[in-house]
């Protein structure tokens, strides 16, 4: 569905009197197959939006190529546009128009007849829980409703590929969970391929088959959420001892699990990553018991996408977001 | 064909939204009425001095051009609001022609202008305007050309600056001298020589004079120059406007 090779975009910027070339996207290779839901992650300024704008033909690449939905973004922009839906984060409707009319007009700009656009629009309003809002002004809708209206706008022409730019930013947790269901339904019910950007890791984890991480204008990781998490060397075991004097003994017992390693000590807590905590835990507890080390707490943390992010980009996603 | 259809969809959407806003309709109609009622009587005693049999054949053409210039010059503000709401970007990801996105909007302003112009002329008739009918129609046509050019310029400027704070002072600094030097309210021939010479550099003055000429049924040289300038201004600004709309990342 999407195949990009060396896709790059640089801008001319002024630095004092000199003109400098700023590379927003340095050269992105990416492939998305039909039926996938792919999450595109990166801190602000990493090149996420620029890449998305190139893939949706809003921006011409300065180098490299991309085919989207079977057409070249540079030379067949109109064909690309006809086959993709784009839900931007800034919205798509005028607050003073009527919701239904906006969807119909949008469909007509895709060349669909008025009757057809109205029929599709009404179906989408049903599917997206917007019943009864056809004549409501978008300005009078809730954030979640407006976002679902944006999705209806993006789907009115039945695209096979849908781009969603930070679809749940600014929504409350309930509205987010609800929107996730609708996004999953794009694939199960409409057979669509979905490419979404987000800076919520839980969102990427919950929705996506595959995650692409972009940083400094380049793709730095691409895999399933599970595989990415496995790349991090295993689970984190944290032991907090009751008596601070025993933290050394706890650290030694932990280190013994992985030959050649040493545990981190922070106050009364010793921690270490082990390949699989489940197989080690029983032995570890027996050893600690034998040495009469009294524990205050024991915690095992599976790697999160935030850990993945920290490993591949050297910073936490939340710092910049 | 597709292009016309797209233009129509954009135009109709714009007009629908505008008509649903009563402030837009009322202010649009009040503008010409207020000028005519509150300023017209001041001019009447001056008619003879201006060399006109009917003061309104001087005044109404000026007001027409003012409507064309000002109503349309500020049309771009609406576009900035639309851009902020994401409407422009949403329209740009459709396969619709970018020029259609501009033309549909200009068309809305032209319709507004024609309605205002007709109100102005009709009301002028009530006040005592007596002018050549083909002349008035032709004058309205020239006004429309000028208004369309201003709407195109304003929309293009809005899309480039994307900021009301930049647009407002910029438009005012252009509009003020144009208004004063076009002889819209009073003919430039009343002024001293240096002011007349300065005003010769403002092409809209020719348009105003052209419209004044056709109003009294004179389709001679002033009308010709007025027409030429109106067409030139129209072609240049609509061309620049559509170029801005076609530009990527706009």
Identify the notable features of this structure and list them briefly.
heterodimer; A: 321 residues; alpha/beta; Rossmann fold; Alpha-Beta Plaits; six-stranded mixed β-sheet; four-stranded antiparallel β-sheet; 12 helices; 14 strands; 29% strand; elongated; B: 250 residues; mainly alpha; 11 helices; 78% helix; 0% strand
Helices, strands, pairings?
The complex is a heterodimer of chains A (321) and B (250).
Chain A: E1 2-15, E2 18-32, E3 37-41, H1 48-55, E4 63-68, E5 71-72, H2 77-83, E6 84-87, H3 99-109, H4 114-127, H5 143-155, E7 161-165, H6 173-190, E8 193-198, H7 201-207, E9 210-215, E10 218-223, H8 225-231, E11 235-241, H9 247-255, E12 264-266, E13 269-274, H10 277-290, E14 295-301, H11 305-313, H12 317-320
Parallel strand pairs in A: 3-8, 3-9, 6-7, 7-8
Antiparallel strand pairs in A: 1-2, 1-4, 4-5, 9-10, 11-13, 11-14, 12-13
Helix pairs in contact in A: 3-4
Chain B: H1 2-19, H2 22-43, H3 56-73, H4 76-84, H5 87-92, H6 98-127, H7 133-161, H8 164-181, H9 193-199, H10 203-215, H11 221-246
Helix pairs in contact in B: 1-6, 2-3, 2-6, 3-6, 3-7, 3-10, 4-7, 6-7, 6-11, 7-8, 7-10, 7-11, 10-11
Question: Describe it for me?
Answer:
The complex is a heterodimer of chains A (321) and B (250). Helix content of chain A is 38%, strand content 29%. Chain A is an alpha/beta fold. Chain A has 2 domains: 2-229, P-loop containing nucleotide triphosphate hydrolases (Rossmann fold, 3-Layer(aba) Sandwich), CATH 3.40.50; 233-302, Alpha-Beta Plaits (2-Layer Sandwich), CATH 3.30.70. Chain A is elongated, with a radius of gyration of 25 Å. Chain B has 250 residues and is mainly α. Chain B has one domain (2-246). Chain B contains 11 helices and no strands. The two termini of chain B are 25 Å apart. The chains are: A alpha/beta (321), B mainly alpha (250). At the A-B interface, helix 2 and helix 3 of A face helix 1 and helix 5 of B.
Low-confidence parts of chain A, pLDDT < 50 over ≥5 residues? none
What is the element string of chain A, with H for helices and E for strands? EEEHEEHEHHHEHEHEEHEHEEHEHH
Give the structural class of chain B: mainly alpha
Query: Which geometry of chain A do the CA atoms define?
Result: elongated
- Biggest protein-protein contact in the assembly: A-B, 31 and 26 residues
User: Which architecture name of the largest domain in chain A does CATH use?
Assistant: 3-Layer(aba) Sandwich
Query: What is the N-to-C succession of helices and strands of chain B?
Result: HHHHHHHHHHH
Q: Main sheet of chain B, how many strands, which sense, barrel?
A: none
Q: From the alpha-carbon coordinates, what is the Rg of chain A to the nearest angstrom? A: 25 Å
Outline of chain B = globular
Oligomeric category: heterodimer
Radius of gyration of chain B: 18 Å
**CATH-derived topology of the largest domain in chain A:** Rossmann fold
Helix-strand category of chain A: alpha/beta
